[in-house]
Design goal:
Length: about 400
């Protein structure tokens, strides 16, 4: 497997385009084939997700995606459904495909009706500039950004020749119970919808489900996976799963790194848990903790906050068996070994403070009760996070 350029457009059979004017953006991606999706578990679910979920469950295929930024079309009642269906209709007419094969996604402010006049005006423009270059993929990735500072794209080529690539957006309101704000993944493999569905759910559980920026689950979280079959290759499912895991994990880490106001990436590695669930909730508790996140931002060697987070996570633990270390690059500081503090000298705390000052910090916990492992990703909590969200609509 090797990393390749081009994002979604690295995949045969995919064309994309997008525009961005201030806070408003519109992206279109075309790729026809079997498809699967995972959607937010927030009980307030945005109108476009309702429409897309129905279309996907009825057909098991997609031909295109239309996504807007700047307005979530969430908590907008029946008019929101009407507007989402009109978005599908507009694109279907442009592409001469069934509107039931068009997925719709939105991201932005909740509780405000879509500016359908703006979407009608620009949908033709975007559909008319579709292409399969890296620039086309990037245009679509940039079009769906809101508070993101960077676009997010990833693609790989498997040893079998199959390619998997996609784009994502996400920066705030990130602790999905399924995926990030928006993510559109493509492959030129020849695989049926049921295989895509199983592989997508497994990958999401290990990637997008393991990131935390602020602990909020969006109303608009959606991940779609479409297989164009354009390579005519039916890969081994295991090989495909590994490639899909790589792409989704890559995108998930980009989202965590680009968290609103973030300056550092935090990776929590938990091993030795009794169950996989215990490992997952312990790792996520560390990267979710406002106190851990604040300590990382301030380079404060207050390592006890990580221990406390594991303790309240709900995982089965024995405090006399826990081990803890912090690392960055080749630097590692061991702080706790099976419940005993290794060293609390000034020099150790200074070494930890040096690690905390790096751009990427790894917090390693061994619970000491089993063999299960999990990794979660998050970011520090900064003054800018409060500023960005205090001024989001003003």
């Amino acid at each position: 497997m090797k990393q390749v350029d081009g994002g979604a457009c690295a995949v045969k059979g995919v064309r994309a385009s997008g525009i961005k004017f201030g806070k408003m953006g519109l992206a279109v991606i075309t790729a026809e084939g079997s498809a699967a999706g995972v959607f937010t578990r927030n009980r307030v679910i945005a109108a476009p997700l309702i429409v897309t979920r129905d279309n996907l469950s009825n057909n098991g295929r997609l031909a295109a995606v239309i996504a807007n930024s700047g307005n979530a079309n969430a908590f907008t009642g029946e008019q929101g459904i009407v507007d989402a269906r009109e978005m599908a209709h507009i694109l279907a007419k442009q592409l001469n495909v069934s509107e039931e094969l068009v997925a719709v996604a939105s991201t932005g402010v909740i509780g405000r009706k879509l500016d359908m006049q703006w979407i009608r005006k620009h949908a033709c423009e975007v559909a008319g500039t579709l292409g399969n270059t890296p620039d086309n993929s990037n245009a679509a990735a940039r079009a769906i950004m809101t508070t993101d500072l960077v676009s997010k794209e990833s693609a790989v080529e498997l040893d079998s020749g199959v390619r998997i690539g996609g784009i994502a957006k996400g920066s705030g309101m990130i602790e999905p119970n399924m995926g990030t704000m928006l993510s559109f993944i493509y492959t030129d493999a020849s695989l049926p919808a049921d295989v895509l569905d199983r592989c997508l759910k497994r990958s999401v559980d290990k990637s997008f489900n393991m990131i935390v920026v602020d602990g909020d689950t969006s109303t608009n979280d959606i991940v779609l996976l479409t297989a164009t079959g354009a390579s005519s290759i039916e890969p081994q499912v295991g090989e495909f799963q590994i490639g899909l895991d790589h792409v989704l994990t890559d995108l998930a880490k980009m989202i965590a790194r680009d968290g609103e106001g973030a300056t550092k990436l935090i990776e929590a590695q938990v091993r030795g848990a009794k169950t996989g669930h215990d490992a997952s909730i312990a790792a996520k508790a560390i990267v979710r903790s406002p106190l851990v996140k604040s300590a990382v931002f301030g380079n404060d060697p207050n390592w006890g906050r990580a221990i406390a987070a594991v303790g309240y996570s709900g995982a089965d633990i024995d405090q006399d068996k826990i081990s803890l270390a912090f690392a960055s690059g080749d630097d590692v500081v061991h702080l706790v070994e099976r419940g005993n503090i290794v060293n609390s000298s000034t020099s150790v705390l200074e070494s930890l403070q040096h690690i905390m000052a790096q751009d990427e910090i790894i917090i390693m916990v061994d619970i000491g009760l089993g063999k299960n492992i999990a990794t979660a990703w998050g970011c520090d909590l900064t003054y800018d996070y409060v500023r960005i969200n205090a001024e989001y609509t003003t």
